[in-house]
Amino acid sequence: MNYRRIATFTGWLWIITFVTSIPARFFFYAPVLDNEGDYVTGAGSDAQRLIAIGALLELLLIISNVGTAVVPYSIHKRVHEAGAVGYVTARLVECTFIAIGIVCMLAISSLRQDAPSGTDAALGQGIFAVYEWTFRIGPGVIVGVGNGLILGWLMYKSELVPRRMAMFGLVGGPLIIISGALVILDVIPAGGAVQVLFTVPEFIWELSIGIYLIVKGYRTSSPALAGTQEAPLV
Fold first, then answer.
1. What string of pLDDT tens digits covers the 234 residues of the chain?
2. What is the 3-state secondary structure (H, E, C) of the chain?
3. Contact 182/188 with Cβ under 8 angstroms?
4. Is the pTM of this model over 0.70?
5. What long-range pairs does 70-78 form, CB within 8 A, spacing at least 24?
6. C-alpha to C-alpha distance for 165 and 40, rounded to whole angstroms
7. What is the rounded distance in angstroms from the CA atom of residue 181 to the CA atom of residue 233?
8. What backbone torsions phi and psi does residue 188 show, to the nearest 5 degrees?
9. Domains of the chain: which residue ranges?
């Protein structure tokens, strides 16, 4: 294995997750989100093209999400095999929720284009509610389990990245889970100040590991790489 190449590739996949997820939700899906479910029967210009671009970005997000777990799997397995499998599984579960959300957005867009006259606004609102819950459970809870707790623990245990950096995942993961649970229980509003504040450590963790792997790669002093020989660059 060439550990530097794996690290660089994984780091860029992390950056892609930011480049695809943030614009998709906050820009390309904005016409639907701003209308809070009334987009199907509401007034205003059609945003079918924007929604389609957002859906494509999220498809790339799914690919890059899975890649951040599959590409470094051979290295993660040297730290803890069950942990490596658990991380891949958590990423797949998260991506399942994202995929459902994509279908919801495309369905809303299609309804506005092709729905027969007299279509009840409740239909669009129902599909929109499904989309919102996929976001609240996938990125809103499962991310804390996978990217936060599992990956944070793997990196902390192995010292493949600095332990101080991995602590952001070990702290941010539980905060994501707690805030997501509070949203489900209707204790705090989704996307409110409390939930945003609770996501900050996880945001720092995911961005920092991407940048670190691109710039420096895995730490060769890590016990997970002890006794191994890196393949030369070809």
1. 789 999 999 999 999 999 999 999 999 999 889 887 677 776 666 788 999 999 999 999 999 999 999 999 999 999 999 999 999 999 999 999 999 999 999 998 888 877 655 566 788 889 999 999 999 999 999 999 999 999 999 999 999 999 999 999 999 999 999 999 999 999 999 999 999 999 999 999 999 999 999 999 999 999 999 866 555 444
2. CCHHHHHHHHHHHHHHHHHHHHHHHHHHCHHHHHHCCCCCCCCCCCCHHHHHHHHHHHHHHHHHHHHHHHCCHHHHHHHCHHHHHHHHHHHHHHHHHHHHHHHHHHHHHHHHHHCCCCCCHHHHHHHHHHHHHHHHHHHHHHHHHHHHHHHHHHHHHHCCCCHHHHHHHHHHHHHHHHHHHHHHCCCCCCCCHHHHHHHHHHHHHHHHHHHHHHHCCCCCCCHHHCCCCCCCCC
3. yes
4. yes
5. 71/6, 71/9, 71/10, 71/13, 72/6, 72/7, 72/10, 74/1, 74/6, 75/1, 75/3, 75/6, 75/160, 75/218, 75/224, 75/225, 76/154, 78/158, 78/224, 78/225, 78/228
6. 44
7. 46
8. -125, 155
9. 3-222
Q: Which two tokens stand for residue 58?
A: 């999220």
Tokens of 107: 């369905």
Place of tokens 């805030």: 179
| Residue bearing tokens 């707690």 | 178
